Amino acid sequence: MEGDIANLGQYLGAGLAAMGSGLAALGVGNVAGNFLSGALRNPSAAGGQTATLFIGIAFAEALGIFSFLVALLLMFAV
Hints:
Blueprint: H1 2-41, H2 50-76
Helix pairs in contact: 1-2
């Protein structure tokens, strides 16, 4: 019985941590969508904001990778 409860907590925690990967995809879409919206309003300034776009995408994707790592650690290391 104790092993079953521990496995339940392990899988539940890993599932909750893995939700961060999906939320990171929403974050990347939000960053890219806002950049596109701004670029369409002011095309001359879009070239100067491309680096900011890539930095924002990298931060959002890094959070997804960290949450995936936590999910893997909860599944196999704990």
